[in-house]
Structures are given as structure tokens and as C-alpha cells.
Amino acid sequence: MIETTETMTTRDGVRLVATVWRPAGPGPFPVLLSRTPYGRGLTGPGYHLDVPRLVAAGYAVVSQDVRGSGDSGGESRFIAGEAEDGHDAVRWAATRPWSDGNVGMFGDSYLAITQLLAAQERPEGLRAIAPHVCPGGLYECVYQPGGIPNLNIMLTISAIVLGPLELDRRIARGTATPGDKQEYLAALARLDELYARLPLSDQPLLKDLVPMYAEWMDNPDPLAPLWRAGVVDHSRIEVPALVSTGWYDYFRDASIEHYERLRGDSRLVVGPWTHFSHDRDICGRDYGDQASQDAIDWTGVHLDWFGHWLRGEPLRDRARVKLFVMGDDEWREEADWPIARARRVPYHLAPGGTLTQTPATGGAWSFAADPGDPVPTVGGAIMSFDAYGPLDQRPLDGRADVLRYRTEPLKERVEVAGEVELVARVSSTAASADLAVKLIDVHPSGRAELLTDGITRVDGLAPGEVREVTVRLGAIANAFLPGHRIRIDVAGSNFSRFGRNLEKGTTTVHAPSYAVLPTIA
């Protein structure tokens, strides 16, 4: 394997640096390109493929520092501008002496959205992409619909990832010292204090290193000019995409939406994974021998994909959609997503904390919403190093500000596969109220395993007004087994996964309110 460092110049004169690994033979070779803000290398954030194996299979693999990162010049624009730079990078890669002119793109997260943005520019030579755990756009990274900040994700990424990377750049330029970085990292031990600061944009630790964080927090309006760049135009993407994500990835629904809007020759793979973890076990929940990316040969999946589109080889795996069905803990192939045979079954919130398919004729249930004592996040699609994903929700059992509704123990297996939502009629003593909702699988042992969650904000509530709202909990594929219970929890916060509503009040959920579970017969 030959390793070289090469540079290119963008259309506006910025120098971008890349590492190239290629076979020792004469070539030329098809090219697999990734574009990263996290530091180019054989391992690191955004890479879950075996690069030496890709090279051994006859590909030149290119890892490029995006503008304003690593050794590349220019100022970081975080997603904005990646369409034009991506186009230029593909054209550059397609015309190198070691390239045969056929380019594919791969990578996770930020490296994934750079693929879609480049593809919409239709650069000559781009044949296929493979975006994994891909955000939907800059605004969708930062906010939930309604302007609720994805606080855990964006503040953690800014503090844990972007801040240290900027310090590394400054150390390399001589404008900062290793001692500055040690002092910064020591401050990260108080990450909970950063979450609690108000206003959210007031983060002295990030003011100089990641100034765009404050700009994000000060612009919750999706129509603000800030968000116009970095929006994916699916109608312009012509190349096929191998889209993949995990049920506990915080870009799960955005990834699935990419597949739904692209379709054509594109494919979708969803495993029992988080944004960073692709093993069989998530925080003690073991999904079995076939659950991990190693078990399904993730690099081999990509070699099959790119071999077909870049070399014209037969596509061995022709499944359009592959899902890992939790509960059953097994993979299944589907003709498409959403699954056509899924029925939208309503489960009604009913008196006594019951969840039933029988419509409730009356009832109203209230909880306190106090930003000074928010319901703490326990698991889910969060950025954490030790507690995330399908965590047991019983640590919250003592809180009176959480409404809980559950079925009787199931007599038969119930498979839910599709988009889950709660349709609720709500009122509040405050003019603004949040509904934070969870879907939970309660095991016979009592373990209350979180499957998915969502939140929405209801603004402009008049005294006594009852308004119907829909809370999207996102996509899931889970089999509730006999003896298990289906549970829906409703509260006014889920902090620090989501930013708090700063209005204090009492929120009431009125019947009829119901969860919609897409059920496979």
C-alpha cells in the first residue's frame, strides 16, 4: 500500500489537503473518497471501514481535510459550502494519474452529508455514495421542529470534538500551546454545567474556539439566512446511495428520509446501533451474534456496493431494505420503507395509566413542568460515553411529573415497524408547553427498555384552550414479545437531550389522545 499526501485547490483558491492510500501496482484505480473535519487517517470519527482491505481490493482511498480543518486552508463553514468543495474534490480525484475516473464516496455523520451535498452538484466521475448516520441539514442538526435545541448533540459535539480540533490547529500554527488544550479539557469535566447555562448561546468556553455555536443557538427560526446553506436538494441527486443508520442514532430519521427521497437504485440498512457504537451490545443490552457491523462484514457490504457501481461487477446483495428487528433480534429484508403492509393502529391513553386499543371516552391527566427541575435524560439517541441507547427507564419511576400508560401483558407478539407518533389534546397553565414522549418495551422482569422518543413545543396557548398536537417519535422496528407490555411516557422535558422550555406550568393531556403504532400483521 502506497501512502502519499496530495493537495488540490478549490474554485475560490483554497488549498485542501488529502492523504491517498493506493495499491502498489501501476493502476489506474477506482477511487473511494471521504471528506472529513475530524482529521484524516486510517481510523477516527467517521470511519468504520477497513481501509487497508479497500486498498487490497484495488481501490485508491482518499481522505481529505475539509476547508478550515486539519491541514487544509480556509475558514470552517460547518456543512455550508460543502456542495461546491465536494464537487471540486470529486473532479480532482477523478482526474489524478492514479485514478481511472470512477469515484465513490463513503463515511459517517459529517462525512455522510458531504457526500449528498457533493452528489447534488453532479460532478463528472461520481458513480455512487454510501452515507452512514447522515444528518438532514444544518438546521436539522441543531433543532427539533418548533425550535427545540438538540442540546446534548450540538453542545457536546461543539465542546468535545470541535473545540479540541480547533485547539490542535492553533497549536500547529503556534497560536496556542499544549497547556491551553490541557486547561480546556479539564473544563470539560464540568460538562453538566455547560448544559445548564442560560441563555444557551452563552458558553464562554466556546466563544472563541467555536463561535458558530452561539450563532446557532441565537437563530431558532428555520427561515433565518444562517440555515440556507447546507440544505440537501434530493431532486438533483442522480447517483445511487447505500444509506445506513442505527435505531439509536440521533440522525436515524434524517437518514431514513434521505433513502425515501432518493429511492431509485438506492438501498437502506438499519441496525441496532448508535451514532458511534456498532457492536452487538449497547450498555448491557445484547442483540445477539448477528447484530454488529463486524458480524455482517460492513467493509464487505461496501465492497459489494462499490464493486457494482464503480466496476460493473454483479451486485451480490440485492435487498432494497435490510432491517434489524429488535425484540426478535434478527435481520429481515423488506421490499421498501415504509413497509406497505404495516397498519396504523391507535393505542389510546386511558384512565388508570392504561394503554388500550379501545378509544377512551373521557379523562384528563396533568403533570408539572418546571425548568428548574426538568426530567433528566436516561438513554436514547444521545452523545454519551457511558449511558445511552436502550436504557432501563425505572430510575425515573419516582417522578410525579411523568405520565405513564401501558398495556396489559401481551398475549401475542406485536411487531411495530415504521414511524411512531403521539396525537395528543393538550392544555396548559403556561402559554408555552413541551410534550416529551417515549415508547418503551416493558419486559416481564420489569425492565423498561427505551425504544425511541420525541418532543414538540406548543406555543401561544390561551387559558383553557385545548389544542391537538402531534409528537413524532420517529422510526422503529421492534417486536414486543408475549408477556411484555407496550408503554408510552409523557412529560414536559427530556433534559439534556433537548433544551428546556423555560415556562413553568401545569400541562394537561385530555382524552381522546393516542399513540399511533405501525403494526405488522
What this model shows, in words?
By secondary structure, the protein is α+β, with helices and mostly antiparallel strands. The chain is 21% helix and 34% strand. It has a 6-stranded mixed beta sheet with strand order 1-2-4-3-5-6, with helices on both faces. A hairpin with a 4-residue loop joins β13 and β14. The longest helix is centred in the N-terminal third of the chain and has 23 residues. The radius of gyration is 24 Å and the shape is globular. 49% of the residues are buried. The mean pLDDT is 95.
Supply database-style keywords.
methyltransferase activity, six-stranded mixed β-sheet, CocE/NonD family hydrolase, methyltransferase, 11 helices, single chain, alpha+beta, about 35% strand, hydrolase activity, six-stranded antiparallel β-sheet, about 525 residues, Xaa-Pro_dipept_C
Structural class: alpha+beta
User: Which residues form runs of ≥5 with pLDDT under 50?
Assistant: none
Beta-strand portion reads 25-35%
Total helical segments: 11
Instruction: Give the biggest beta sheet.
Output: 6 strands, mixed
What percent of the residues sit in helical stretches (DSSP H or I)?
A: 10-25%
Q: What value does the Rg take, in angstroms?
A: 24 Å
Distance between the amino and carboxyl termini: 52 Å
Shape, principal axes of CA atoms = globular
Q: Count every beta strand, where a strand is a DSSP E run of 2 or more residues.
A: 24
What's the pLDDT, averaged over the residues? Answer: 95
Output the strand order for the largest sheet.
1-2-4-3-5-6
InterPro entries: AB_hydrolase_fold, CocE/Ser_esterase, Galactose-bd-like_sf, Xaa-Pro-like_dom, Xaa-Pro_dipept_C, Xaa-Pro_dipeptidyl-ppase/CocE
Protein name: CocE/NonD family hydrolase
GO molecular function, one term: hydrolase activity
Domain Xaa-Pro dipeptidyl-peptidase C-terminal: 303-516
